[in-house]
Amino acid sequence: MVDPRGFLNNSQRETAPRRPVSVRIMDWKEVYEKRDAGVVKNQASRCMDCGVPFCHHGCPLGNLIPEWNDLTWRGEGENAIERLHATNNFPEFTGRLCPAPCESSCVLGINQPPVTIKEIEVSIIDTAFENGWVKPHIPERLTGKTVAVVGSGPAGLAAAQQLTRAGHTVAVFERDDKIGGLLRYGIPDFKMEKQHIDRRLEQMKAEGTRFRTGVEIGVDITWDDLRSRYDAVLIATGAPKPRDLNVAGRDLEGVHFAMEYLAESNRKVDGQDLTNQITADGKHVVILGGGDTGADCLGTATRQGALSVTTFAIGYQPPAERPANQPWPTMPTLFDVSSAHEEFGERSYLSSTVEFVGENGKLTGIKVAETEFVDGKRLPKAGTERVIPTELVLLALGYTGAEEESLAKQSEVAFDERGNVARDTSWATEEDGVFVAGDAGRGASLIVWAIAEGRSAAASIDQYLEGSSELPRPVKTTDKPISIYS
Description:
five-stranded parallel β-sheet; FAD/NAD(P)-binding domain; FAD/NAD-bd_sf; glutamate biosynthesis
C-alpha cells in the first residue's frame, strides 16, 4: 500500500500551478504548467488505501485509484499506466476535463482536502506517452464481424477501441472534417490541446480502427443503409440539441448558441480559414448560463479581446463549501472558480433574461431582472429590470437531447420522453443490431460517463455478435449516479 502515514506527513493538497494570467490569455495553450514529479509523488502518498475506497464508487469507470496512486508513489510509472488503462481508455481526456467525482468521494475528504486524483491521473498518462509506454494493442484474431460507430466523441471512441481489440472490424463515422466530436470542436485548447486527441488516434489507427470523416449518417448514407452494410451499429452522436431561450428579440443578429461560437473559435485556432466568424473582439459580451460551457465561452472571449464579459445565471450562487444536504460522498454543487473566471469578467446570479434589445436587426443590449421564486418557478421580478449594453450574447443553457429527425425517419429506433434514444438494459435500441451509448442515450453528462457507457455498450455488441464477451462492463443502463454525477 502507499505510505501509511502519507496523509499525515503531507496533509496539504497541492495542485499544478496555472500559468500567469497575463501570459496565458495571450495564447491558446493549456493553462497549467508542467506537473512536478516530486509533488505528484508526495500527493499520491496521501492516498490511504482505504478499507472501503469510495473513490471507486464515485468514478463510473471504477478506476483502480489506490493501486495507481501506490505505483506512482513507488515510481513505477509503467505499471501505473497499465492499471489506469485497465479501466480507462483515455485518461488524458478525463484527467483534463472530468470534474472528478472521485475526489468528492475520497475518504480523506471527510476531514482533509481530498487526494489530487485527477492530477495524478493526467501525470501518469503524460509520462507514459513521453516514455513510449502507450503502444497499440493489435487483436490476435479477427472475427470477420463489422461494426459501425456513429459519432467520434468519447463514448464512440471508447467503444470503437474496445471492439477493435476484440477482433471486430470497426469504422467510426464523423460528420465533421476531423475526429473527436466535442473533444475536438467543443473544448477550447486552453483546457485540452488537440495533440492529445491526435496521438491517441494514432494508436487506434495502428490497432485497426478505421475512421470516416465528412460523412453524415442520415444525409450521405441513410441509417437503414448503414445497418444493412454492418453487422452492428452503435449510435454515439451525443446530445447536441441546445436549449433555446424564447424571449423577445431572440432573432436579433448577435445572439448565438454557445457551441456554435466555440466550434468556430476552435476551428480558427486549428488554422482553418473562416469567413464571418462569430467573435468577441472589441465587443461587450453576455453569457447566459453559469456552467462549464459558459466558462469555456468566457475564456474564449477573453482571448479574442472582448471589452467586457458578464455571465448571468438564473439561480442562486452555489456555496463555497459542501452544504449539509449534499454530504460526503456525494458530489456537491459548489461555487467553482475555473481558470477562465480567474482571468476576466463578472458573474451575476439570480438574473433572469426579459428580452434582447436591438436596432435595425442587430443586438445592442439585453434586458435582465432579478429572479424571484413563485410556486417553485423562477420568474423575473417586476420593477427590477435593467438593460445591459452588449453586441454578443451566448446561450450556454444546456442541451435537450439527441438529434431525432433523420434517425426517427430512417430507422426503427425510438426516443424516450427526454429526447434521448431509447434503449434496454443491454444498450440495445428497438431495432435489432443497433445500440446506443453516451449522451445520445443518457442525455448531456460527464465525459467519464460517456467512456464508461462506450465500454459497456462495446461488451454488449461483442456478445450480440459472438454469443459471449470478455470485455468489461463498468456500468449498466439502470445505474443511477449519486447526486449530480449525471
